[in-house]
User: Fold these one by one.
Assistant:
Number 1:
Amino acid sequence: MDPFFTRNRMSDYLDNSLSPQAKRDFEEAIANNSELAEELQALKATKALLKEHGEAEPPPDLFDSILNHVENAKPTEKRWLPIVKFGLMAAAATLAVVVWSKQDKSPLAEETVDAGGVVSRASTPNKPEKTAQASPKTKPSKDVETATSQSKPKPRSRGNQRQVASFVAPPVNPAQHIKDNINAEPIVEEKSSLSKENHLGDHLHLVSNDPVPKKKEKDTVVEMVIDDAVVGNRISTNDPMILKKIHGLKSNYSNLKVLKRNGDKFQPYSISEDEHYRALKLIAPTSEWADLKKSLMAHGAEMIKVTNKKGQTVAEAEIEILYEDEP
Amino acid sequence: MSQSALARKFQLEKRPKARASSRVVDFIHEDISDLDLIRRLKMGDKTAFSLLVRRWQKTVYTQCFRQVGRKSIAEELVQDIFLAIYRSASNFREEAKFSTWLFRIVINHCKNKNQYGYRRKEKFHEPIEGSDPERPRELAAGSANPEELSHQASLKAAIQDGLANLDEKQRCILILRDIQGLSYDEIAEIIDTPKGTVKSRIHRARLSLAEKLKTQITLEDLED
């Protein structure tokens, strides 16, 4: 048995989950390789150590402390309550902003703001006339505050008017304010220009910090290296049917072993699951792994190499069917 | 089974001093299954809860302590976990084994705690017992030979140190398998991962741990 496969079956051997034939093959391989025998011994000892000394003794008062904790615990607030509270606060804040912005833009609101004290009543001589025009019933001689209150179906309190005014605290020169607003670009146009240039997509891509951009998948060529186990030669091939299968199916990538080539040997490549997934994503973006394994095994494949169009190796992985033949 | 039938079966009675009589209760209800206890808990029987605590506290504490590495945090976690069980007993739908449900809660709590500690840049795992002069090595009680006690303590400390250096997922799964003694199927159900992945992770975790233990313990120690 190949040392690589022997090494990967050590845990199965220790857990007694190998078939009788596989167990005999394994024991034979171990007997012929002292290095592997030593590794197996270390694994066996580690497992025994965990079993013997792994259990932790709880403190003697733990039982009482648990019951006390349960008895003294405060009744839980519903999980959704804080969210609802936050939502209501956010809605109230949004409503306030909307109301304020509408009042700020409408002629009626401007008058209210002015009347609230941002600009003195005397300094806006035209406003009372405008108000008077908007509400014919209002007497022109009355001041702005009176006119505003009469023009509304529900008269506001003085407090509200002051509060609204306080939002627009900086004293504004009305003429300059109008001029600025005319010259300013509408917000809608800014948004549309952003979407046209796809700024959002680029930004998200940078933030994701993914070293394998999705665009490269299209440029990736999958090359399978079929291993002749007896001779040991590796023959490169591009089988279009297999490539189609690789790309055409979906995968959950559960049982793939990634190895790193080190001279003539392969060593387990210690990579995080994310990297593992990423490497596989390159190989089989939408493959059903179980079906893929079967088709690859039928072709005797043990190795997948991913190269780009320039022929550079992007990812290299050896497929190992760890538990396929076991009961 | 209806509530009245259950009440008849177990002759339910209120036990205001459950803790004082817990040993007796343990003895009486030794043969009651976890499922029966959780059913009784759903009916509001606090005695059933205390029985569950007594039955599972060591397992839960071991899992928490080996995963987070600090006794104080493990204690807090165990309290929170049992509180969660007490409060959410009605959510247990009896589709899985009680132990599966319990371990899921335990693992989620540990994961949250580790993430919280990671965000706060806390180092949860304690150094090897005995290496800190201010924290004397804790020796197991009940053994007469001091050398043996010291040896056992150093082995336990080496285990903890080795586990602390593992990836969180590997650590969790290795504890479930080699310390708690769960089967691959049970682990796969608890962590909602394919069985093959569980096997691979355990194999990698054992290899990593064996490699790490080599630097601290000799093979003869391991074989003892």
Number 2:
Amino acid sequence: MKKGLSKFSTIKGRSIFLLCFFSVLFIPLYGGFIDRFFQLDGVVKSREVVSLNYHTLASGEYQTYLNSKWEDNFPGRVFLLKARNQILYSALGESPNQNVIIGKHKYLYGSDYILYEIQAVPPETEEYFENLGSSLATLSELLAQSGKELYVFITPSKARYFRENIPSTYMILQADYGKTNYEKLCECLKENGINYFDSNEVIKEAQEHNEFKAPLFHATGIHWNKVWGEYSAACFLEYMNSISKYDLGAVNVSETKSLKPIDPDADLYSSLNLLVPPKGDWYAAKMDVVKAGSDHPNVFFRGGSFMGQSLSALISCGIFGENTHFENYYYFRNNYKDYQELSGFTAYEELNLDQYVGEADIVVLEVNEAAIAHMSWGFIDYLLAHPEYTDAVWNIASESQEEWGNAKIRFEGVRDTDLNPWGVTAGLICEDNQKYALLNPFSAMSIEFDQETQETIRARIYPEVAEFSDGAVLRVVIRDENEKVLSEYECKLSNESEWTTVFSDMIETDNRVTVDITCLNEEGGSDSCDWVIVECIKSN
Amino acid sequence: MVFSSAVFIFAFLPVTLILYYVSFHFMHERCANFTLLVMSSIFYLWGGLNNFLVLVTIILINYFLVLLICRLDGLGRRALFLLVLLIDIGNLVFFKYINFLSDNLLLFFNKIGVDLQISFPFGNIVLPIGISFYTFQILSYVIDVYYGRVDVQKNLVRFALYVMMFPQLIAGPIVRYKDINSEIENRRISLEEVEYGVKRFIVGFAKKVFLANTVGKIADAVFSQGGSNSFLYAWLGAICYTLQIFYDFSAYSDMAIGLGGMMGFHFLENFDHPYCALSIQEFWRRWHISLSSWFRDYVYIPLGGNRKGKVKTYLNLSVVFLLTGIWHGAAWQFIFWGIYHGFFSIVERLGFNRVLKKVPTFFSHIYTMVVVIIGWVFFRANNIKEALHYIERMFSFHSNDLQNYAIVKEFSPLFWLCLCVGLILAVKKNVKGQQLFKNISIPLERGAYILLWLISVMYLSGVSYNPFIYFQF
């Protein structure tokens, strides 16, 4: 009897064991129900659909596609993933997300922030900052020509404020390259006379006076707390008021306790996709207008996500008129009523910059300390390559029209300069009894041919200084007499002092043709000695 | 399809087991075999229809020609036997080695100044998954039938099942027909054996998901940088790869044996604590046992083994190790790896064995592990030059630049835990996979297995890094 019972108990135990094993295998049968109670945070990347045909089936491509689809979507995955992450986080102190690093006292960091802070990634070169400074100075000048103001707004890095909580393992990577990107940027902006506001300075002062209870950064987030972000924005407004031609008024920021984290105070925690919500003291910010400004200039903000907790409050308070908040790869218009996404961070051609920058009175470039290496994601260079969006070049076109052989020529973007011997950025010059057109970066010329002319236009960097130039780019637009664009292309001029053909009468038209040539800077390069001379010769 | 993938665990396996058990219990065993064959076909089809067609063709050719061999005698029988061997080996050579051979042939003629002015029309031949494993299984069947060691299998489904059974189809162990024939024809499934199979599968699954994958990340990070600029990292990378390849492959064998157990099959062990070996000879008695015993029985012994004098023995050993290297891949580093192991085996036979027995165990263990670890560097590197460069880094004690983000970012608490556990389990002789939780009460032991299973499955759900090294062979 006892033996029989023992056998029964063994069978029972074995059956329960196997039942448990199989119940895990059959999770997809009931996992969908469990998943209803959870959801995953993060970026969703869609997979390319593979169609079913003999080729994809024979190569196994279709099966691989099905495999991936199942792995991403099987019922029960959400719960399993969250439970896995919770075990890794709680039991092992390990980050389930490779972009999130868990520091001491469970302080969460984005990896880039740590790498720049401990200089595991070397800071950018002097040349980078020289180019950046020169580009910003040029942009500032271009904007100023049409009455616009340019400001740079620097936001803080969590890794610098909580350096002591960076994991010890990462400190192996610590290096000393001298000045950090942040220090170099501040110097560069100062040297080039760019109006910039460093939020670190006001934060430091406010922290000394215990201005707020809210922490600058929560342990669970990568972004600054809104209280500090909006406070910095308020100080930035004060700074702008002190140098701007506009009266923008003044605002005040206060904090209130909150029961739940205010987005994005726990964004890093959310991206870990854990089961248990974060704990902590949370604070909400409130910005009030204490003195209304008499002006409401239009504004264009370009930067990263730190703008979302700071500058956005200024727009929401009604400080500005028409507004564009262009953050990462998406933008808001009309006081955050309209939202649009671009296909990428640098897909600027999808943006109506002609209107958004064109209408702006103030342009603000926000840059976070950890993002200086890719400040504005090429936006500065893009604007310089398309000066028409700043309204500068095209508004100061020279009125005079000159004869140049059989063509009529008109220059645009003509400015006085002491950087070349001719004293102007564009115009007709005479060298060795030959008449050439001179173009410097961000100037342009428009040549009008009549139908009987057979001309070739060629250009090169002025030979005497060619070796000091890094080349230039000519953007050529050919139009017919009805302003219809017949052709549009770019010519790159190298510094090898060779003539490059820019236009030859290849366009078949019986009517008048206009050739617009805009001189631009080589992308990311310097405009030093980029003196382009253009000549017009008879075609063979 | 990989065992440690969501599609296998949550779709293929439950469906297969249900269909298999239902057909086994409620229908005839033949029906269960057919079910298993169909599911194994789906399993292999997952790697591509082309691969499947190659496998089916080779199965059909072998099935009919071996039947024909049994009907013939004399020269005709021998000629047909050689033809079958030629077809099987030719199939393997074509898919696995033809590009390597043609490239090296052209290179050779180029070096001696002969411009052949030809290009081989092979293009990029895709290697069918598991071709080396199933070819060796088929060869063992053909040879054993020819020499009368086993009876010919007249049932096509049973023969196809022997070759295609999904647990061992793509990464071994290389199962001999004589070891499994009786179970294909007649087997029983008991709760006890299913429990054993499940436990063995869980252990293999956990070994793969945690140990192999976790240490594999560091190995990849270090090897991708040619050993980095630090001898410490170079050693760490080599040790991690040593652990990765062991846990990766032995985990697959554990899972294969476990799956076999769940379905009433008993596959032989493929590993027996190889990193506890005190010599290279012993290592090869413990590592990939099904392959080394295959070469022993079908190459070494037919060549004369150790019965024809010392010189012939060493020659036979060299042949076996050369073939072992070639079996692993069509690249010079694999060939070198085989020769390298063969060299140490011969040195040990020449007398070094006696030295190893006299010195304290610790030293012979260190010697074996250093030889094995350096051998794995050749195995892991993309070519011999890269391997030599890596080994140079391992012994450049003056260079120790630890500032390497790609490596440091992989240093997680889980990595250090897995490294420690992996090292202990690898060198501790008495820990067998199926006895992972011994010395505790049975209910507790079962609970521990279920917990390990659940955690492993949870961990799998978020894993993006999940390679299987032995798939490429």
